[in-house]
Amino acid sequence: MRHNLLGENRFSRYLLYALGEIILVVIGILIALQINTWNQERLLQKEEVGYLKRIIGDLELDLQALEGVRINYETRLILGSNVLSLLGPNNLETLKRRPGYQQALAHIPEYTESLRASFGRKFYLILAISRFSQTENAYQEMLDNGKIAIIQDESLKLDLQKQYKQLLNTRSFQDEVVMHIQHAYREALSENGISTLSEAPFEEIYPALSDKKTLTIELENYLQISEAQLVNYIYADNSIANNTRQLISKIKNYLVKEK
After folding, report:
1. Rg, Å, the chain Cα set
2. What is the reported pLDDT for 101?
């Protein structure tokens, strides 16, 4: 057709025809690019959903671990207050007014068996600590692979970053401060000749204590930091447990919308 048009000196018609061919080629390229973009977006969305589902799984494991932390800290507060009441002058009344202690009292039936333990055994149960370590496999993998940008919802992305920063800060405080105070309590036990394996009753241990005042102070410090940590982990409005539940709910709602 181009040859005929040129042979007939119909140059304007030829230009229109050539322009039409160019437009068709451009449209074809644009369609191909759009299809490629859709495919890439679909793959990124699939990858985003995969990461978010894995993060939900990690957060649910965190909630299970936090339940163990709750039991451990509440056991310590209940038994610690019981031991303090027998050691002599102390600040037990101040501890009893704290919100974490009040929450522990609400669950006291869970600790009936521990309260029956011997005086020596209670010192060990107070010493035992459940260290919380978050499960962050999916989130860390996403960061390592530079995939954080695939989270389309900016609010959700920000909440994820806040969640794992809070967990990191809490773990650092736990390792640097809480464990230091626990160590001081352990030292006080050692200096007073109390073995963590002792099954001795109060009547046998109490007269042999060489430094009741230091033991009382270190136990008070340990219980005070434990109460604060219990509130931070479980009972505060912005506790790790509450934030984790809210984040799980937000991710699930986001995934439903994405469908």
Report:
1. 32
2. 95
Cα distance between residue 26 and residue 32, in whole Å? 10
Element (H, E) at 185: helix 179-191
Distances (CA, A) of 211 to 206, 207, 215: 10, 11, 6
Cα(113)–Cα(115) distance, integer angstroms: 5
The residue length of the chain stands at 259
Please name the residues in contact with 5: beta carbons below 8 A apart, sequence gap of 6 or more. Answer: 11, 13, 14, 17
∠ CA(244), CA(248), CA(250), 5° rounding?
A: 115
Q: Where are the domains of the chain?
A: 62-258
The reported pLDDT for the residue numbered 95 is 92
pLDDT at residue 257, rounded to an integer = 80
Q: What is the pLDDT of residue 53?
A: 94
pLDDT mean by block of 10 residues, the chain; 259 residues: 54 64 79 69 81 95 95 94 92 93 92 90 91 90 90 92 92 92 95 90 93 95 96 95 96 85
Contact 49, 147 (CB under 8 A): no
Give the whole-angstrom CA distance, residue 175 versus residue 9: 89
DSSP state of 259: -
Per-position DSSP letters for 97-139, written without gaps between them: TSHHHHHHHHTGGGGHHHHTS-HHHHHHHHH---------HHH
Cα distances (angstroms) measured from residue 155 to each of 152, 185, 252 = 9, 43, 14
